[in-house]
Each structure stands twice: as C-alpha cells, then as structure tokens.
Design goal:
about 375 residues; Rossmann fold; zinc ion binding; S-(hydroxymethyl)glutathione dehydrogenase [NAD(P)+] activity; zinc; NAD(P)-bd_dom_sf
C-alpha cells in the first residue's frame, strides 16, 4: 500500500526496440509499493551507457523507458518507507547496499548480494511501475530517469543535501563517480604513484579527479580529442597524450612518458576493445594494475594473454567499486561543497521533449555532459 494511490501521467523517453528511434511519449507511473518511492525528476543527464542501452544493453527487453542518471524530489513513499519522506532530494542509483551481507561486510566489493545490480529492467519484485497504453515498460537498470516521474526501491536511492546543484548531482549519479571510484576504491591509487586514464569523458575526468584525491604524482590523460587537454588539467591531469599525434601505440607512448617503465595503474574508460590490451601494456610489468569501466559494444573482447602472464592485474568494475551509502554519500558531500570543478563537465542542455537531439550532440567534439531538463 502507498500513502498516495494516484497514477501519474507524464512524459518519458521511450525506445520500442532495437534500431527504433527514441520518442518522447505520455506514460503512466503507478504509485510506489510498500518499500518504494516515487520521484519527481528535476533533471537527468546522458552518458555512453545510454547509447548501449538502446542497442540492447544489459538486456533485450522492450519497450524501454530510458535513462539512468539524474536527481529528483521524493513525491510519495510506500507505507514501509521510514528513511525518506516527501520533499527529500534524492539520486536514484542502480546498485544497493545492505551493509550486512557477505559482500558488504567483506570490504572487497560494492556488489551487494541483498540488493544486486538489476539486469532485468525491472524492480526487485520483477515488476515495473511504468507503462504505456497498458503495456509494461522496462528500465535500463533499476529505474528510468528520462521521465518526469520514476519509481525506485528505497534501497536504490541516496538522499542528498537539498542545496546541492541538481546538474552536478546528476553527473555524480553515475559517470563522474564511476571514474572517481575506480581510482579511489578499485585500484586504491597510492600516494606518489603514476596513473594513466584512457578516455577523457566524464568517467575519465572522474578517474583523474580520483587519482588526484589519492595523491598520485603523475596522472596521464589519453584522448584523441585535443579539446580534452584543458578539461583534464582542470581535474588534476599532469600529462596529456593525443594518440593521433604519433604512429606509436598508446602503451608505447605511456612508457615513453614514464622512463620506459609504464604506470602503476591504468583506468580504461573508452570501451574500445583494442585499448583493453593497450591499457594493460601501459602498466608496469609484474605489478601493474588495470581497472576496466568502459562498456564495449561487443560482449567479448580480445585480450593479449602474455600481457597478463607478465604479472599484471586486470579488474572489472561496476560503478567504480562505490558503495551507495558508504561511498557515494562522501562524493555527494564533496559535490555539495564544490570540491570538484563539475561545472567543467556541462556542455549542453536540452529539454526532455528534445532528448533525441542529445544523441546527435553527443557526437560533437566539444560535448562532455548533456543535461536533460524536465518541463514540469
């Protein structure tokens, strides 16, 4: 049961199937069930994962309500919700944290066993609160944020300071925080060490910021877009490599910049399959560590096995190893205190009605983050 029983009709971005265009249509959003909250979205944002989502990531279920980044205000709560109330400003997330399961208490992973990452496009009870013309809508992950209203299980929502900049809050809901966490929580960058970051989108700039936060002495940003040099420096990058300036490989260029040794850590943020081996090769033999956060378009990618056999470590990551309550809350606090130059990420704004244009804007060389404004 819910304290409000009204079904809300609102606008949302929808994809009806593989290869189908994104449309903005009226949908119905049911009231929250007992352990859920309905959120009136303030703004959302777009990242590369949103492109892969209309290509069938992480499931093939359609029609789909799109979006996974954003911030909003709790509009109504289920009758078993005690930690949130109407009016709270929240970030919907796609990962939970129970703080008591084997994984949560291990200190080794953020992948909660009680509240796992949703790869089904549904809420934890295998249903959806969103529908269009009587047909169930799936989410990308645990919620859909390119909608004027969305419903999340309370375990997948983080309350934030109401004075936080909504645009910046949207940025940290996934992209920037994923990169920051990769440096902070996944490889645990050591003070005085060297780090290479492949791909300087919002995730890569977050990784640079995380490496700086951890005290890295040399932070090498790698991107073929020269415009990213200035952005990287704003977040703490010390060296920039544009691979198009040389016939040498990325790993060779990184080794040149590190006296032939390679870096202590590399963070792969592009999802481009050949760069997986390159990011490993760019690290020191025997001790180098690479964390992968970029999502490739293909389910399998080639990997240079000799590179691994020479003592390097490759680690996958979801949400940069961040726990929602323990870690994302710290990033949100830093965000609210303006400790990150997140204004550097904002390059474009579009209203929800024009969200289709965002996919074209994303191809522009000066595009970093696109904010989607709700019209209500």
């Amino acid at each position: 049961m819910s304290r409000t029983s009204q079904v809300v009709t609102c606008k949302a971005a929808i994809c009806w199937g593989l290869g189908q265009p994104v449309t903005v249509e009226e949908i119905q959003v049911d009231p929250p069930k007992a352990t859920e909250v309905r959120v009136k979205m303030i703004c959302s944002s777009l990242c590369h994962t949103d492109i892969t989502s209309i290509q069938g990531f992480p499931h093939m279920k359609f029609p789909r309500a799109l979006g996974h980044e954003g911030v909003g205000v709790v509009e109504s709560v289920g009758d078993q919700v005690t930690t949130l109330k109407e009016g709270d400003v929240v970030i919907p997330t796609y990962i939970g944290e129970c703080e008591t399961c084997e994984n949560c208490v291990s200190g080794q992973t953020n992948l909660c066993l009680t509240h796992p990452v949703s790869l089904t496009g549904l809420l934890p009870d295998d249903t959806s609160r969103m529908s269009i013309r009587g047909q169930r809508l799936y989410h990308v992950l645990s919620c859909a944020t390119w909608s004027e209203y969305t419903v999340s299980d309370v375990n997948y929502v983080l309350k934030v300071d109401p004075t936080i900049d909504p645009t910046h809050a949207s940025f940290i809901s996934c992209g920037f925080s994923t990169g920051f966490g990769a440096a902070w929580k996944e490889v645990k960058v050591e003070s005085g060490s060297s780090v290479a970051v492949l791909g300087l989108g919002a995730v890569g700039l977050g990784a640079i910021s995380g490496a700086k936060f951890m005290g890295a002495a040399k932070i090498i940003g790698i991107d073929k877009n020269e415009k990213k040099r200035e952005k990287g420096e704003a977040f703490g990058m010390t060296h920039f490599i544009n691979p198009t300036d040389s016939a040498k490989s990325v790993s060779e260029l990184v080794k040149e910049a590190t006296g032939g040794m390679g870096v202590d850590y590399s963070i792969e943020c592009t999802g481009i399959p050949p760069l997986l081996t390159e990011s490993l090769e760019a690290t020191k033999m025997g001790t180098g560590k690479t964390v992968v956060v970029g999502i490739p378009a293909e389910p399998t990618v080639p990997l240079g096995i000799i590179t691994i056999l020479l003592g390097r470590t490759l680690k996958g990551s979801v949400f940069g190893g961040l726990k929602v309550r323990s870690d994302l809350s710290i990033i949100a606090d830093k965000c609210q205190k303006k400790e990150f130059p997140l204004e550097e990420l904002l390059s474009h704004e579009v209203p929800l009605e024009d969200v289709k244009k965002a996919f074209e804007i994303l191809k522009e060389p000066n595009c970093l983050k696109i904010v989607i404004k709700m019209s209500h």
